[in-house]
Write a structure and sequence with these properties.
single chain, mainly alpha, two-stranded antiparallel ribbon, 12 helices
């Protein structure tokens, strides 16, 4: 029993530190950008875009570096499944979610294209350097598209940060940025260590640990943000948060193992995990789009999404 205690402590403390440091890194990165008069647009795209995906990207990168590519791939796909089935499902059960039509016509289509591309690249049973580059080029395309779209908007959600930073705070902000980055990397290392050791102890594959324990842990920030947004009735943020996070997971997080440690893709990914991710991406559109002026994900549809998640977990174990 003592053998498993240390990995469990490492995993839980790693998750707690990961969530804290990602939040601190994002906040202080935005303050630094404001001190140097970097546009709110760049803050939103780079700092916040990286901040929300930092846990998945770092865990995936460190796992791939150590040769645990199953955990990397499982983390990317598992996080997508958690985000739609659990994060969106639970949020809709708490309060029906109104969905903006523009998100379905633009961002969801990009997510669907990225999901289908990822499926085609994984189909040969290998994730190599070229596959990683293709996924990375999709990320560049998405960022370029977002940049272009944001320029057309008059108001930006990060504008208010401009007024909240004094220049004399810069030393403290820089220090907190460096500390949070060090904690971010260290906590990701703790999560990888804990996940791999638990997998060895229970004699399950690192893929399954990546799909479940690690995916849940790295999706906790999204769950917290979504529940908070639903309670504040900021519905656009909920669906936008899920689609944005899944896009980053599909084209950035999944690219990392291919770029760092090209390897074979476990057969279960193609037969079991990827089809569930694809199904949920399609379901996201079906439960959101209504042939009327209002697009709402109701409580019953939220239950359907959670039900799909429950069935998938049953299949895993």
């Amino acid at each position: 029993m003592a053998d498993i205690l240390l990995p469990i402590i490492a995993l839980l403390s790693g998750f707690a530190l990961l969530i804290w440091s990602a939040d601190e890194f994002t906040e202080n990165g935005a303050k630094i950008a404001n001190i140097f008069n970097i546009s709110p647009l760049i803050i939103g795209l780079i700092i916040f875009g990286f901040g929300t995906s930092a846990p998945e990207m770092l865990v995936s990168g460190l796992a791939a570096w150590d040769g645990n590519t199953g955990l990397s791939i499982g983390n990317a796909i598992g996080s997508n499944i958690f985000n739609i089935a659990l994060v969106l499902g639970i949020s809709a059960i708490i309060l029906p979610i109104e969905v903006h039509e523009d998100i379905l016509k633009k961002e969801w289509i990009f997510l669907m294209v990225a999901t289908l591309c990822a499926g085609l690249l994984l189909r040969d049973g290998r994730l190599d350097f070229i596959d990683g580059l293709i996924l990375l080029s999709l990320l560049v395309l998405f960022l370029a598209y977002t940049l272009k779209e944001s320029k057309n908007k008059q108001h930006h959600e990060f504008d208010e940060l401009k007024h909240g930073v004094e220049k004399d705070q810069s030393k403290k902000t820089w220090l907190m940025l460096i500390i949070s980055l060090i904690v971010l990397i260290s906590s990701a290392k703790l999560v990888v260590y804990g996940g791999v050791e638990i997998a060895k102890f229970f004699q399950v594959s690192d893929l399954v640990i990546g799909l479940t324990v690690v995916a849940l842990g790295t999706s906790l920030p999204e769950l917290a943000v979504s529940i908070s947004s639903v309670l504040k009735k900021q519905y656009e943020m909920v669906v936008g948060n899920v689609i944005g996070s899944n896009l980053f997971n599909t084209i950035a997080v999944l690219a990392i193992p291919g770029l760092i440690h090209p390897s074979d893709v476990p057969a279960q990914v193609l037969n079991r995990d990827y089809p569930v991710m694809l199904l949920l991406t399609v379901l996201l559109f079906l439960v959101s789009y209504k042939f009327s002026k209002k697009h709402v994900i109701n409580r019953f549809e939220g239950l359907v999404l959670v039900g799909v998640f429950g069935f998938y977990m049953w299949r895993l174990f």
